[in-house]
Amino acid sequence: xxxxxxxxxxxxxxxxxxxxxxxxxxxxxxxxxxxxxxxxxxxxxxxxxxxxxxxxxxxxxxxxxxxxxxxxxxxxxxxxxxxxxxxxxxxxxxxxxxxxxxxxxxxxxxxxxxxxxxxxxxxxxxxxxxxxxxxxxxxxxxxxxxxxxxxxxxxxxxxxxxxxxxxxxxxxxxxxxxxxxxxxxxxxxxxxxxxxxxxxxxxxxxxxxxxxxxxxxxxxxxxxxxxxxxxxxxxxxxxxxx
Length: 242
Known about the structure:
Blueprint: E1 2-6, H1 16-28, E2 33-38, H2 54-70, E3 74-76, H3 87-93, E4 95-97, E5 101-106, E6 109-114, H4 124-133, H5 136-144, H6 147-167, H7 170-173, H8 177-186, E7 191-194, E8 201-207, E9 210-216, E10 223-229, E11 234-240
Parallel strand pairs: 1-2, 2-3, 3-4, 6-7, 7-9
Antiparallel strand pairs: 1-10, 5-6, 8-9, 10-11
């Protein structure tokens, strides 16, 4: 019995080795898996379910195969890069979409899972932008635009975001501890598992004089990492990408 968590693969045609690492992961991690949780940013950019590229279709095919052949449910929480993934693609990939903050019972332990971008409150510019781009009305209008036009907008936003990220300091990109404590107390959980910050590791949290734990699952670049939870252990597993 074990449950797996991954995040921040940022799949794109520019990095085929990461895509192949994902497919190898899906072929290898099949034994005694109760569920796979993908905590956002599976793709580098997503402009709509109506776009079809070989990468998108192959990833959906591999995920669907993983679900059907091994009877492993796949759950997905949107990231800040692919928050426009909709029900159509989720159905194609046999993924179940979850709310941005989601509480699960993991072998008797209450666990809060999320992508993690809402934890970075010091990045005020991004938080303001997030409120705008997550507006359902604006998303509806965006989806009504021609596909090629949406592609240009998506990659312009991505390029601008990369440029700004290079100048941001670590404390701005990192989580706000107060927000971590607030959410753990609000959801009454002892463990938080998330992605987004790309800082794989285990981080102790004290909430109302109670010791809790935050785990960042890490990203997939020169190496990849995932969290494996069993009834008796919580491990971060790191492997190299060829």
